[in-house]
Design a protein that fits this description.
Layout (H helix, E strand, L loop, with lengths): L1 H24 L5 H5 L4 E6 L1 H4 L2 H10 L2 E4 L5 H4 L9 H12 L3 E8 L19 H18 L4 E8 L14 H6 L3 H12 L4 E6 L5 H16 L6 E4 L2 E3 L5 H14 L3 E10 L27 H19 L5 E6 L32 H12 L1
Parallel strand pairs: 1-2, 1-9, 2-3, 3-4, 4-5, 5-6, 6-8, 7-8, 8-9
Helix pairs in contact: 7-9, 11-12, 12-13
The protein binds (3S,4R)-3-hydroxy-2-oxopiperidin-4-yl beta-D-xylopyranoside (XIL).
Length: 373
């Protein structure tokens, strides 16, 4: 009798301690705490952004990973042959290092924001294969070498897959000069330059069936060629009016996991404005478009966006150990690229903080989902 009372008390004490632990877990109040080491939480930022106190504060408090929005791109680090400019990129690397944030390199090979000399002659025609390969190798060796030990991983190749139903790879200067194996070569050069870094293939729209299929084809061919591919980057430039995206994302993550690669959501945002172009091809600009929320995001749209973000993170949590990072493409709404693309100068609201750095309903709903499990 005596013993059982004690046992009973012990059980109660144990239960209340357990409840305490559970309660503590559900009270995490920043993104990175709420993620509880299940995956990294990142943001993209520019060198001007980190110089602003409010942005710097937000990054340090909420995130444990950083991607440079433009500063690591080929055009930024090697604008002309052999002229390397790392000053702006180094500022971002130093910011991340000082705060113990994991730095992601974006990107070594891309058709956009890349200097034309790399794969084309003065006449605009493709360079001979060997010369183009030498340029690609020299670029990757220098850039990945420069950041060796500083980055956790590289978007080795960005957006190489075609959006056209009848085409596998995108028609790019690198493809024309080198051929289909430019992607494999880029992965080989990256591995040689920084053997410790994770290597990613990054693209937009690759949660949708058509691109998913082509991406799997690419991963298989890279692996067959002996490449190390650690993860597929799903950019995650989502649109509030594309309601089936979370389900597609769920299926795509499962499909990539089956191929033996991890997944990172590398550039997450949820566009609330109407647009014509469906993907996130930076070349697809539109001359005009409605700009309905210049005075702020109506409460019902903010609530809809909050639900959308919740669904995305519910999907992420369904794949523990597969999704290793979720990176937002920007910090607060005022700093989003979607204010400039696809229509120049609109007032978009795609992120978790508004223009005054106030957390939006979407922020609270993400925290709530992360605390739930
Ligand atoms: C964007 C930047 O955010 C802009 O500042 C820049 O003008 C254009 O590029 N997919 C990518 C990113 O992989 O590099 C793009 O970043 C957004 C789409």
């Amino acid at each position: 009798m005596h013993t059982s009372i004690i046992c009973g008390m012990r059980a109660t004490v144990a239960a209340s301690i357990l409840v305490g632990v559970v309660a503590a877990a559900s009270e995490e109040t920043t993104l990175r705490q709420a993620a509880r080491s299940r995956f990294l939480i990142g943001a993209a930022v520019g060198s001007r952004g980190i110089a602003k106190a409010e942005t710097a504060g937000l990054l340090s408090r909420e995130f444990d990973s950083l991607t440079a929005e433009n500063e690591f791109k080929p055009q930024s680090v090697q604008p002309s042959r052999g002229m390397f400019r790392f000053a702006e990129a180094d500022k971002i690397a130093a910011f991340a290092e000082a705060r113990g944030m994991k730095l992601v390199g974006h990107t070594l090979c891309w058709h956009s924001q890349s200097p034309s000399w790399m794969f084309r002659g003065d006449d605009g025609k493709p360079l001979p294969r060997e010369e183009a390969l030498r340029n690609l190798e020299a670029h990757i060796k220098a850039v990945a070498g420069h950041f060796r030990g500083k980055v956790v991983g590289w978007d080795v190749v960005n957006e190489a897959i075609s959006d056209r139903p009848d085409e596998y790879l995108r028609d790019t200067p690198a493809l024309r000069a080198i051929g289909e194996d430019y992607i494999l070569k880029a992965f080989e050069f990256a591995r040689a330059a920084d053997p410790e870094a994770e290597l990613y293939y990054n693209d937009y729209g690759n949660e949708s069936p058509k691109k998913l299929e082509k991406t799997i084809r690419l991963i298989r061919s890279l692996k067959a060629g002996g490449a190390k591919v650690d993860a597929v980057g799903i950019q995650g430039h989502f649109r509030l009016d594309a309601a089936d995206t979370p389900e597609r994302l769920d299926r795509a993550i499962a499909a990539y996991a089956k191929e033996g690669v991890k997944v990172v959501i590398s550039e997450l945002d949820v566009d609330v404005l109407p647009r014509g172009t469906t993907g996130a091809n930076v070349g697809d600009r539109e001359r005009s478009g409605a700009d309905p929320y210049t005075k702020g995001l109506p409460a019902e749209v903010a609530a809809k966006q909050a639900k959308y973000y919740a669904r995305i993170f519910e999907v992420v949590l369904r794949h523990p150990g597969v999704v290793t990072r979720v990176t937002f493409w920007g910090t607060h709404d005022g700093a989003s690229w979607l204010n400039m693309w696809p229509v120049f100068r609109r007032t978009n609201h795609p992120l978790l903080w508004d223009r005054s750095f106030e957390p939006k309903p979407a922020y609270r709903s993400v925290i709530e989902v992360l605390n739930r499990r």
